Structures are given as C-alpha cells and as structure tokens.
C-alpha cells in the first residue's frame, strides 16, 4: 500500500532524569532530505537519529525538533585560568605602586576581571540520554507512519478511480479504431472520384494497397496494448510495498509517450478528443503521485 509523503507527529517520554519531546513534520520532496533541530549539547546524537528515520522513511522532506530537559543535572565542574589570574593580580599590584593606592587585592577583584573561572568543557555522555530520545523518536515515527498510510489509502483510491476512467477511454478508442482499413479505403475512393470526376478507371487492388498502407501508418494497436500493460503495472505498484512514487512517475512518462503517439497517428475526431481527455486525466494523476513516497 502506498504512503503519503506528508504528515505530522509528536511524542513525549519522561524519566527521573530527563524529559524528551519530539515533533516531526514531513513534506513532499524528490529525495530524502532531513533537517534536525536539537540543542548543541546533543548534536552527537544526530547520526543515530537520522539513521533511525532513514530506516522508516524513504522519500520526502523531514523536519525534526527535539527538546530535552535535564531534571537531575550532574555536578558542574569548573576550570581556573591560573595564567590569567596571576597576570591580573600582578597588574593590580602595579597599579597600586604607580598610583600609590592603599588596600588589599581581594578575591572579588580577581573574579571581576572575568574569564578566570569557567565551566569545565567536558563531553556529555550520550548513552543515558539516547534511550529517551529513541523512545520519543520511535513513538513519533509510528504515529507518523499511521497518518501517512491513511493519506496513502485515500490517494490510492483516487488514483484507481482515475485509472478506470483512462481504461474506459482506451476501450472507446479501441472500438473507434476498428475497421480502419475499410474507413481509409472509402476515403481514398472518395478522394480519387473527386479528383478524376469519374473519368478514370480505378484499380481496386491498387486502392486496397494504398488504403492498407495508410491504415498501417495510423495503426495504434501497439500503443493500446502497451497502455493496457501500463495500467496493469500501475495497479500492481499501488497494491505493492512502498516506496512507489518513483516507479509511478516513470510509468506516467510511459503513458504520456503512448498517448502522444496515438494523437499523432490518428485522424479520427473521436479518437483525437479521447486522447485529449486521456492527457488531462494523466495530468491529474501526476499531481497526486507527487504526494506519494
């Protein structure tokens, strides 16, 4: 069953230490294109997140937003810039001497310089956080898949109906193209009679030969057979396993090629009108297929 490329899902997961929330939005796109919005501290999880998404989604623009809150923050460590502290202390002593300023150099003065005491730069361990992110992600992806499947069923139902319309037009064209040899023979005789005004004897064998030549040039039986084959394959893809969008797009190109050839070959008004209807229906199908994964 085909899936839609559009959808939205949100999931939450909570533990004693972490709160996790994820939102996923999907849009149409020719390829799989992922955008991840997550705090810089959790960027080491990016590859794991994208790998999990790529295992479930094959095509489309996927935008993910993660919000992770630490409820029990580990003890924060700090680094002291001893070089800066000593340099600032020496500068203060120099000011005292040069300006003859009395007083003690206090700790507050040193800290006021800024940059002497800084949070220690340590790489956060992602292993305790990943289960929270993974649970949120799996729940959101499952919800997203259900939504995309429902929309895919709606799209498939519409496409099947349009395929029936195309099939009916093709049946009308096939009936209208029956007896083309007799039609061209009659037209050829009428044209010869009009040109010669009945003053020349007409060779029936030559007329039959020319009529057969014209009928062969305008024969669309091969195009009708191929179009019927494309219809059958289109239906199989709709009923098969996703992803199906690329295959359906390719089949639409094949349909268009057959319909263009039919229109170029035929001289019958009814068939020409049917070909126009076919191409209009094909364009509607093309618009729907753009939404399929």
Provide an overview of this structure.
This protein is 59% helix and 14% strand. The protein has 293 residues and is an alpha+beta fold. The protein has three domains: 7-73 and 125-147, Ribosomal Protein S5, domain 2 (2-Layer Sandwich), CATH 3.30.230.70; 78-119, no CATH class; 150-289. Helix 1 links the parallel strand 3 (32-37) and strand 4 (60-70). Helix 8 packs antiparallel against helix 9 (269-289).
In total, the number of strands is: 6
One letter per element, helices H and strands E, the order comes to EEEHEEHHEHHHHHH
Number of domains: 3
Question: What portion of residues belong to β-strands?
Answer: 5-15%
Low-confidence stretches: none
Distance between the termini: 11 Å
**What is the count of helical runs?**
9
The profile of the biggest β sheet is:
4 strands, mixed
Estimate the global geometry from the Cα principal axes. Answer: elongated
Major beta sheet, strand line-up: 1-2-4-3
| Estimated radius of gyration | 37 Å
Measured as a percent range, the helix fraction is 55-70%
Derived from helix and strand composition plus strand pairing, the structural class reads: alpha+beta
Mean pLDDT: 84
């Amino acid at each position: 069953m085909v899936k839609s490329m559009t959808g939205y899902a949100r999931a939450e997961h909570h533990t004693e230490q972490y709160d996790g929330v994820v939102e996923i939005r999907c849009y149409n796109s020719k390829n799989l294109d992922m955008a991840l919005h997550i705090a810089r501290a959790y960027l080491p999880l990016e590859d794991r997140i994208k790998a999990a998404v790529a295992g479930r989604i094959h095509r489309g623009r996927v935008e993910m937003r993660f919000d992770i809150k630490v409820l029990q923050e580990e003890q924060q460590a700090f680094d002291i810039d001893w070089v800066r502290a000593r340099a600032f202390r020496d500068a203060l002593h120099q000011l005292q001497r040069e300006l003859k300023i009395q007083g003690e150099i206090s700790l507050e003065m040193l800290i006021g310089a800024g940059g002497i005491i800084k949070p220690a730069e340590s790489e956060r361990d992602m292993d305790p956080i990943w289960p929270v992110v993974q649970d949120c992600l799996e729940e959101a992806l499952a919800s997203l898949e259900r939504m995309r499947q429902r929309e895919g069923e709606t799209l498939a139902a519409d496409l099947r109906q349009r395929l029936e319309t195309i099939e009916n037009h093709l049946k009308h064209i096939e009936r209208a193209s029956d007896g083309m040899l007799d039609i061209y023979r009659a037209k050829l005789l009428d044209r010869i009679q009009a040109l010669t005004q009945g003053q020349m004897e007409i060779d029936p064998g030559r007329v039959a030969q020319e009529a057969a030549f014209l009928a062969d040039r305008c024969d669309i039986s091969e195009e009708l057979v191929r179009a019927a084959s494309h219809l059958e394959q289109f239906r199989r893809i709709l009923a098969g396993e996703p992803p199906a969008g690329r295959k359906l797009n390719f089949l639409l190109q094949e349909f268009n090629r057959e319909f263009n050839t039919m229109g170029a070959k035929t001289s019958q008004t009814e068939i020409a009108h049917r070909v126009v209807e076919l191409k209009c229906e094909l364009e509607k199908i093309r618009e729907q297929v753009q939404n399929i994964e």
